[in-house]
Design goal:
Blueprint: H1 4-11, H2 16-26, E1 41-42, E2 50-60, H3 72-83, E3 88-94, E4 103-105, H4 107-115, E5 118-123, E6 126-127, H5 130-135, E7 139-142, E8 153-155, E9 161-163, E10 166-168, E11 173-177, E12 180-184, H6 189-210, H7 217-231, H8 238-242
């Protein structure tokens, strides 16, 4: 049986959109349940793709007032991540009162996360010290950058999060690159590792056909449908399926 670490390593060889296309053919889960909003983008694109098991929490770094830093839950999560056998993606929901002022991490937090086995962070907040993140290296998928933060309060560790328009649960498998973030439906993980190389080969052949100027659109549609069948992705209506390419 292929181990989780082996599957994660295999999936690092593929772009996130290609895996998303593959999932659409092999798993019935509606895509609205597993791809995150485009508002969450990579600020470290040279480091991707990023693949890891989700560890979750909420964080408030923007609310004004006299509250002191409260990072006890963060230090507990570092111990948790260190005990895990898989690469981890830290998924953080920013919950402060000033969303555009949220700063979830800089290069110091990145270094300690990386030291215990975290390979990336996904958040609806912002980050800073991007050059430091690149040097660590720790990938960051977020709403952009910001220079500073208020008191840092980490709360509600290891709970399901509504983030990027979907629900991310602890232990979900996250895949991300420069074009976005998905969580992989658990039921299709083994099949995804097997089918992704086939999807890449199908897309190569299909796109080579689609760019031709000497073939009509109608012929292209039919030939792509035939390619889908050849590569094992044809559904009940192959012509309609071909329009997903």
């Amino acid at each position: 049986m292929v181990s989780m670490n082996a599957m994660i390593e295999q999936l690092r060889d593929f772009d996130t959109p290609l895996l998303a296309n593959t999932i659409g053919y092999i798993d019935p889960t509606p895509p609205s349940e597993w791809y995150l909003s485009g508002a969450i983008q990579s600020v470290t694109p040279s480091l991707g793709p990023t693949v890891g098991v989700a560890v979750t929490c909420e964080m408030d770094t923007s609310s004004p007032g006299e509250a002191k830093h409260d990072m006890a839950a963060f230090w507990d999560q570092l111990e948790q991540i260190n005990r895990m056998d898989f690469p981890v993606v830290w998924v953080v929901k920013a919950v402060g009162s000033r969303p555009d002022h949220e700063c979830i991490l800089g290069d110091g937090v990145a270094k300690i996360l990386y030291s215990v086995g975290c390979v990336g962070v996904v958040t609806n907040g912002r980050v800073r010290d991007v050059q430091g993140l690149l040097a660590t290296p720790l990938a960051a998928y977020c709403r952009g950058t910001v220079a500073h933060h208020c008191s840092v309060r980490v709360q509600r560790p290891d709970v399901p999060l509504e983030i990027g328009g979907i629900t991310v649960n602890p232990d979900d498998l996250i895949h991300a690159n420069s074009e976005g973030v998905i969580k992989i439906p658990k039921a299709c993980l083994k099949d995804l590792c097997e089918q992704a190389p086939r999807m890449r080969a199908f897309e190569h052949d299909a796109h080579r056909l689609l760019r031709r100027t000497d073939v009509s659109a109608a012929v292209k549609r039919n030939r792509v449908a035939a390619l889908l069948s050849e590569y094992g992705f044809a559904g009940e209506d192959s012509a309609s399926e071909a329009e997903k390419v």
